[in-house]
């Protein structure tokens, strides 16, 4: 199974940030650690940095497995795969599965797929500058060395 690279993992950590006490994100979802959400995350909850790292590892594993399955047999660079994991980690695998980005990628339109990252810069229907910066970084990672890097199969 393919795995996110260090550049992708760094993007998740950079843009999610580390919060050891539960907080509500921009749309009101209780979140902790590096962007971990779920029914177990409650107001007032605290965790350690080690617990945050463990949650991140578990969350990424699920996202990686889903994307590996969705893109099976598609020759992707490690950077392409990692950029998509970062995006899907943030928007959810279900939204990624239905995305035009995935459709364009599977149709062989890598440039068109790259441009789709920028369409995911809204929360609650409004553009969020932090999401615009994040999507730009994901798109840049997706495009790094596109024509020169070896492809995984």
Radius of gyration: 15 Å
CATH architecture: Orthogonal Bundle
Kindly report the CATH topology.
Lysozyme
Q: What is the mean pLDDT?
A: 93
Order of strands across the main sheet: 1-2-3
Strand percentage, roughly?
Answer: 5-15%
Distance between the termini: 10 Å
Number of domains: 1
Strand element count: 5
Fraction of residues in helices? Answer: 40-55%
Order of helices and strands: HEEEHHHHHEEH
Task: Output the structural class.
Answer: mainly alpha
Shape: globular
**How many DSSP H or I helices?**
7
Give the SSE layout.
Blueprint: H1 6-16, E1 19-24, E2 30-33, E3 36-37, H2 49-70, H3 78-91, H4 93-97, H5 100-106, H6 110-116, E4 122-123, E5 126-127, H7 129-143
Antiparallel strand pairs: 1-2, 2-3, 4-5
Helix pairs in contact: 1-3, 1-7, 2-3, 3-7, 5-6, 6-7
In short:
This protein is mainly α and 153 residues long.
Keywords:
globular, mainly alpha, two-stranded antiparallel ribbon, 153 residues, Lysozyme, 7 helices, single chain, disordered C terminus
What does it look like?
The chain has 153 residues and is mainly alpha-helical. It has a single domain (6-143), classed as Lysozyme (Orthogonal Bundle). The chain is 53% helix and 10% strand. The protein is built from 7 helices and 5 strands; from the N terminus they run H-E-E-E-H-H-H-H-H-E-E-H. The chain has helices at 6-16, 49-70, 78-91, 93-97, 100-106, 110-116, 129-143; strands spanning 19-24, 30-33, 36-37, 122-123, 126-127. It has a 3-stranded antiparallel beta sheet with strand order 1-2-3. A hairpin with a 2-residue loop joins strand 4 (122-123) and strand 5 (126-127). The protein is globular, with a radius of gyration of 15 Å. It starts with 5 loop residues before the first helix and ends in a 10-residue tail after the last helix.
